[in-house]
Amino acid sequence: MKQYLKLDEWSIIEEGFDPHNHEISESVFSIGNGFMGQRANFEEQYSGSSLQGSYMAGVYYPDKTRVGWWKNGYPEYFAKVLNSTNWIGIDVDVNGTSLDLAKCTVKDFVRVLNMKEGYLSRSFTAVMEDGKELKIESVRFVSIVRHEIGSIRYSVTPLNFSGELTFTPYLDGDVKNKDSNYDEKFWLEVFKEAGQGTGALTIKTKKLDFHVTSAMFYEILKNGEKLNLDAEIIEREKFVGNRVSVQANEGEEVSLYKYVANVTSRNHGLGQLVEAAREVLNTAVQAGFNALLSEQATAWCDKWKESDIVIEGDVAAQQAIRFNIFQLNQTYSGEDDRLNIGPKGFTGEKYGGSTYWDTEAYCLPFYLSTADSSISRNLLIYRYKHLEKAKENAKKLGFTKGALYPMVTMNGEECHNEWEITFEEIHRNGAIAYAIYNYVNYTGDFAYLGQYGLEVLAEISRFWEQRVNYVPAKDQYVMLGVTGPNEYENNVNNNWYTNRIACWTMEYTLDVLNYLEQNEPERYTELVGKLNLQEEETTKWQDIINKMYYPVDTERDIFLQQDGFLDKELVQVKDLDPKHLPLNQNWSWDRILRSVYIKQADVLQGLFFLGDRYDLDTKKRNFDFYEPFTVHESSLSPCVHSILACELGYQEKAYEMYLRTSRLDLDNYNNDTEDGCHTTSMAGTWMSVVHGFGGLRVKDGVLHLNPFVPGHWTSFSFKVMFRGSRLKVNVTDKEIIVLNETDIPAAISLNGKEHTISGMGDVKVAR
Amino acid sequence: MKQYLKLDEWSIIEEGFDPHNHEISESVFSIGNGFMGQRANFEEQYSGSSLQGSYMAGVYYPDKTRVGWWKNGYPEYFAKVLNSTNWIGIDVDVNGTSLDLAKCTVKDFVRVLNMKEGYLSRSFTAVMEDGKELKIESVRFVSIVRHEIGSIRYSVTPLNFSGELTFTPYLDGDVKNKDSNYDEKFWLEVFKEAGQGTGALTIKTKKLDFHVTSAMFYEILKNGEKLNLDAEIIEREKFVGNRVSVQANEGEEVSLYKYVANVTSRNHGLGQLVEAAREVLNTAVQAGFNALLSEQATAWCDKWKESDIVIEGDVAAQQAIRFNIFQLNQTYSGEDDRLNIGPKGFTGEKYGGSTYWDTEAYCLPFYLSTADSSISRNLLIYRYKHLEKAKENAKKLGFTKGALYPMVTMNGEECHNEWEITFEEIHRNGAIAYAIYNYVNYTGDFAYLGQYGLEVLAEISRFWEQRVNYVPAKDQYVMLGVTGPNEYENNVNNNWYTNRIACWTMEYTLDVLNYLEQNEPERYTELVGKLNLQEEETTKWQDIINKMYYPVDTERDIFLQQDGFLDKELVQVKDLDPKHLPLNQNWSWDRILRSVYIKQADVLQGLFFLGDRYDLDTKKRNFDFYEPFTVHESSLSPCVHSILACELGYQEKAYEMYLRTSRLDLDNYNNDTEDGCHTTSMAGTWMSVVHGFGGLRVKDGVLHLNPFVPGHWTSFSFKVMFRGSRLKVNVTDKEIIVLNETDIPAAISLNGKEHTISGMGDVKVAR
Question: Taking every annotated instance into account, which residue ranges of this chain make up the domain Glycoside hydrolase family 65 central catalytic (chains A, B) (predicted)?
């Protein structure tokens, strides 16, 4: 764990340049707008260790699967988000020597991620080998107003000399993915053109034919005056640039403003890409850097109005929660229902930038509460659009009907290739069903069920129907060979959570069928026809619901994680020699598997999702049993425990759990932030605060809150949008104030008591 | 399945050339002598599909592990037997056109593997594009008398023209392994020298520094007269050769005799390799081709005296069993205790040529009965020599003591990288312990126990001691997370076989300790000291033996393959739609895992190994339950079933099982013989005949036989060596005759009745 970042309420600040931290900072200081993302790579040449990353949302490559031993059913490829054209590049030469932070002395280095206004800045003094000193300042952002625009102001001031500064602003498509399975480059050149102050480059992927066009324009000002300079035009394979020199006297600031439009064939016709890029670029150039930056600040201000959390009395916590909210908003804007949320967002290559169950299980609540319901609806529609692929996936695995959503996907096809995960971690199907319930329950958008929801639910239920098998000797159904949410057990029988979420799906599907039959009879008939749904199917579902086998420990009166759980050596984590932790770095895989240690919430995930079906005592018995065996080696683990702990009144445990992920990336807790940030787990941290400390639940159309102030915070406040209203909830030791910031009245329950808050009204209760 | 080979009692014969069968034939017609092996690649250039393979026993390469997802504990490399210098090469040009069977018309093609005398021959007429016809005849062998010598007679006769024939005999070290993980070449050149009629080449592996030197000499005869020719010397990277032309008139036979010595740094000092090769070569050249071939025939005749099986009334069966015996004798001669038996012998690259539990479980009985006991003893010593590595392997996986032998190995280090196999298929440890019992029981060599056996047994028992865990609630020990012999279940709890063989190991270890204390007290004390064996350890072993948990089905009164077995859908193989078979080509891995279908004997493997501990009824109940669920998709499966079926009187089932592997490669039953022959399963077929139909068992120093004539055979006979005597057992429908071919009397039990057969005597009983 490295803690080198300064505490600040609104910014992430790095002071002093340590190359060992650079790749971590490249992740942490990433910028994005939901349509593109950019790691905090330097604009100028850097010969030290760096993971270059410029990502265009939805542009991926089907990288041929690499395995040791092939298993039937493995996918042909793993879809990878692509490192795309390097559009930020501005090389700098001083009297013929390249500026390279690995090759000069760096003084007064400050890197700032301004989260309030949405930009990255950097300033430092470079002392070149020959003693020349330069002051560098840069500001960079990708616009959340204009999704295809990124812009940079890059200023150089000679501090102790006068001489020639040479700038090479460029677009470079000759890039690679570090995680390429066969060390291939994925891009081909399609078009390039460089002119005075301009350049355009189109590259396309070797497979799938994704095209990305980048167009750039730059201008150079000295002491605020625009210069007319004659540039050398550079064109080479997948590269366009200008090389331009400026005479600068000591103390004169030379600023290069670079504007870039990045457009893709996902949003433009192949023949129109260059034109589209230039058009978008021109509008931005006409607006000018300062106006773009100003509209960026305004737009971020609006985002914060919807989603900010204010924590008083703990700057580290304040910074962390804003960082998490900021990264989530940078990753997914919800405007494009073909996009989703990769585990690392746009901050790295790992996990391929693809979609996991993280989205439904952890991210959805954040977007439900902090954005218009259309945003979370789009997350659901993403899966609806993949339904046919999920049905194909089930067929491929030998099922005659139904849908199995993939473990990892970009376009709906399975990408993962570990049998114990790909084929067996099927509880993901339950999370996708649960998200429909969660969305409808939160938003009240019952129309979704007839429009999209039922089809997904029915096909998932059909999958479960075949995935269980009936055991005559028991007169019960069992589910063999699964991996539950706890990936530290593989290929187990009767994982309680999976059995439970499977039956829950079938129950909910039957409920929804009943709802539609009553409320939308025509659509009901239409859907039954479309699905060719037979009565014997729903009868079977009911039979499975009635006769499902659930492993339990009658002595402790708890649900059992799986059939064989109690045969394990029941030694709690606290009694382990700490040198064994984290287990995933110290134990061989078989030892982990046969151990009692739990990677992330499993039975407890079920008690969290289906919280309204279990009483507090049940939750308490299970929590008390399982948490002490849990090593929380998934970043998605602590949040669920934190929320349950809050509900059970274990405030200290809740806060301990919250702390485990709140600053996961800022403090590089898992020693892997250089690969990218843990974006999806950030949503879990948000949940810890709002669902945990805030006690947020939605029941029967009413928003329930049951908050307390954790740790040494003096107070905290958060925003939630609920059925049209936006509420600001402020919690101190003494009182809770809920302020309705909209005109739409809201029905809420505060500490168990119902209130209606009129438009712009508030309610205040003592704690 | 392809059946293109002719039936013959002593030879494998291919008539007519079909390029689609060529790679299969390259495997089937392989020749070897336990020290080197050579696929039946053509001597002359061949541009069609071919898997080149020249293997030197014990010369391997640590090829960097390739996996999709790394798991803690995986090995760094997979050791691969290397495709080494191509020493058979003789290119042929006719008036400037290369002879290439892919580019000419081939008539009267016959390829013969003469098993009786141990050589490969080939003859055909090639019609070149320009109409020229050539008769080609070749004979090739690797000497089982001179382990480093291979020789070829290659004759060309122009049939319808007179002209120039050009020969290029060569040694080519610029070869690769098809299964290289990263498409690397593994060899570097060390030395080369070509002269008139000679050549020498030394290459070394890029890692581990194995050196292989090949030296060649050739001469050319026309119409039986040696020619003095001036050859063009060819030297290039890793290649030496001669190019030499001969004028031949229509009908004149030109024969090239090529002699090659292949020596390795395993047997010679690095500085002496070239000299050693030349010396070995010279002796062979002086003897001459015909003498070498003649001594080869004599030596094979001796081999057959020890191991032949004669089947009357079924040529296909006769050919098959001789093929199996021939390949086993070609693969392992037992003279070098650093060598072992790869699953494909020297007939292909697959499985890396490494050692599996196949050796102990399937091959040992063959060598016990058909060779001097020193041969099987060497197989045991191989593992003794790897004991330290096996202890390191256990440590790597988190055990504080004991030994876990690797799943796959070349030098004692684990090479495999699938967690469910590498870390969990630990029953292999039991097979290695069992082999010690099997060897001592068969040979009566009790001295082995004190010399080598106990150390291995004790360290394996120590492993089991830690691998089980005690469950207080049950007051029993369990073993979690294993893969049994049935690899169609992974990561199961309490695999009956593994639990049983673990306890058996501990029982046997305690027995051996007791034996040594009684019979070799000094050595006993020495060994207890060397092992630092504590009383608490043996006490613990006894406690585990007493309190081991074994899953059972009390209703059916059978042992359960594993805890969850009866929750599976119990549909027998015969009730499966045959289009699903083989499952491993049609079902996704998870579907196989949760199915009831068994790849190979599992509970039944235990009842086979520990046959004297279970009564016939118990065997019958378990056989009747498990066999119908068994798909026998391992070539090691049918033999065990066949032997048990014989014991149970299920003669038809026994014969059906025998047929499944007896001609596995000759008929390319599994459509994979092109990768190499299933060498280790050939030993299983031998067991089916001798232990199955012959009913061979050894109890208390007595050889038991209980034979019957299976199928439509009229009679069969087999040889067994037993404690110094060699017995020929001849079985007809009417009688059994056992002939003692040695001077040493033998105590045998025939159909339950004891006899002593005096030296050179016989015993005859009616059936």
Answer: 322-687
CB pairs under 8 A between A and B: 119
The SS3 call for residue A534 is: coil
DSSP H or E stretch at residue A717? strand A715-722
Smallest CA-to-CA distance from A512 within A500, A524, A525 is with A524
DSSP label at A587?
A: S
β-strand partners of A120? A113, A140
pLDDT for the residue B2:
61
Give residue B338's pLDDT band: very low, low, confident or very high (50, 70, 90): very high
Is there a contact between A73 and B589 if contact means CB atoms under 8 Å apart?
yes
The model's pTM is 0.94
Query: Which is nearest to A339 in space by CA: A375, A306, A294?
Result: A375
C-alpha–C-alpha distance, residues A457 and A459, integer Å: 6
Whether residue B245 has pLDDT greater than 90: yes
Tell me the Ramachandran region of residue A701: left when phi exceeds 0, alpha when psi lies from -120 to 50, beta otherwise: left
Domains and CATH numbers, chain B: 51-65+75-284+295-305 (2.70.98.40)
Q: Is the pLDDT of residue B752 over 90?
A: yes
Q: What phi, psi does B141 have (nearest 5°)? A: -155, 160
Residues 6+ apart with CB under 8 A from B60: B79, B80, B81, B82, B208, B210, B352, B353, B354, B410, B411
B-chain CB neighbours of A417 within 8 Å are 68-69
Intervals of chain A under pLDDT 50:
none
DSSP codes of every residue in B399-416: -SS-----SSBSSSS---
Query: Residue A641: what pLDDT?
Result: 98
Provide DSSP, B14-72: EES--HHHHHHHHHHT-EE-SSEEE----SS---SS----EEEEEEEEEEEP--SS--T
> Nearest-5° angle of CA A245, CA A250, CA A256?
40
Is the Cβ of B590 closer than 8 Å to some Cβ of chain A?
yes
**Helix (H, G, I), strand (E, B), or coil: what is residue B431?**
helix
pLDDT at site B3 = 84
B254-264 and B149-158 beta bridge pairing = antiparallel
List A residues 682-711 in contact with B (Cβ-Cβ < 8 A): none
Q: State mean pLDDT over B688-713.
A: 95
Parallel, antiparallel, or unpaired: how do β-strands B133-142 and B119-127 relate? antiparallel
Eight-state DSSP code of residue B227: P
| Amino acid B302: pLDDT | 95
Residue B283: other Cβ atoms inside 10 A:
13
Which ipTM value was assigned to this complex? 0.93
Q: CA-to-CA distance for A83 and A174, rounded, in angstroms? A: 10
Give the pLDDT confidence of A224-263 residue by residue, as tens digits.
Answer: 899 999 999 999 999 999 999 999 999 999 999 999 999 9
pLDDT above 80: residue B352:
no
B392-397 long-range contacts, Cβ below 8 Å, gap at least 24? B394/B463, B396/A588, B396/B73, B397/A588, B397/A590, B397/A591, B397/B73, B397/B423
Share of chain B above pLDDT 70, in %: 100
Question: Given the structure tokens 């302020």, which residue do they identify?
Answer: A739
Residue B746: pLDDT band with limits 50, 70, 90: very high
Q: Which residues of A are annotated as a binding site?
A: 357-358, 599-600
> Which candidate in B413, B487, B489, B674 is catalytic?
B487
Arithmetic mean of pLDDT over chain B: 96
Work out the burial of residue A632: count CB atoms within 10 Å of its CB; fewer than 13 is exposed, 13-18 middle, 19 or more buried.
Answer: buried
To the query of whether residue A656 is one of the catalytic residues in this protein, the response is no
Contact B588 A418 (CB under 8 A): no
Q: Which of residues 375-404 of A touch B (CB under 8 A)?
A: 396-398
